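2.7 Reproducibility. Because tokenized structures are sensitive to small changes in the input, we list the exact sequence used for PHOP2 phosphatase, including any N-terminal residues retained from the expression construct. No trimming or masking was applied before prediction.
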Amino acid sequence: MKFLLVFDFDHTIVDENSDTWIVKCAPEKKLPNGLRNSYRPGHWTEYMGRVFVYLGDNGVKEDDMERTMTTIPFTAGMVDLLGFIGENKELFDCIIVSDSNTVFIDWILKAADFHKVFDEVFTNPAAFSNTGYLAVQNFHAHHCPKCPKNLCKRKVLKEFLDKQLERGVSYTRIVYIGDGGNDLCPVTFLKKDDVAMPRQGYTLEKKIAQLAQDLSPVECSVLVWSSATDIMSYLKLLIKE
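Resulting structure tokens (single pass, no recycling of outputs):
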């Protein structure tokens, strides 16, 4: 009996958007209007590429970025929740599926000593070039019309589950914890024994509610959380079942 916990990262594990948090490194802690207005829906990764070029051009170094990123606050109760999952790893497999990037997530998890809690992190690959600029690539290519072009979280989840089955691992229940619009696609993939945990007041909760109003509700159970303590209470109940 094993459970799979799937976490989004921004506004779920950390209480901010890591991509906008990095702007604190910029001159005067803000971006020029032209750059800020250059974002096109569905093309966030390319937009962030331009942000990283701007930071590099302004002499922002890897150390500055790391120092800034490791000050990002965790969501209320999240430190306790991740500690609890870490103590019960024989019951939980735990993955992150995020539209952030490998460098940011790695820094944040290592600084807080949480990298051992997660079995895998699926996010946009990033690395510093020889000239010290951070470059981010799209996670994969996909054909899902509902998702941003760099990442379909449903595809990631499905491929992960298929790979686990090949290894002989199947899960009693999947618990999906997220907040954003791009978390809806994987939530619609969940089955009736699974649980979606959208963050209260965020886009995912609103989109799930909208589906129910449109009489095409999601198949899984839905439990809303406002603090990670709510998630921990639910997981403790799961273990007792």
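The chain has a mean pLDDT of 95.
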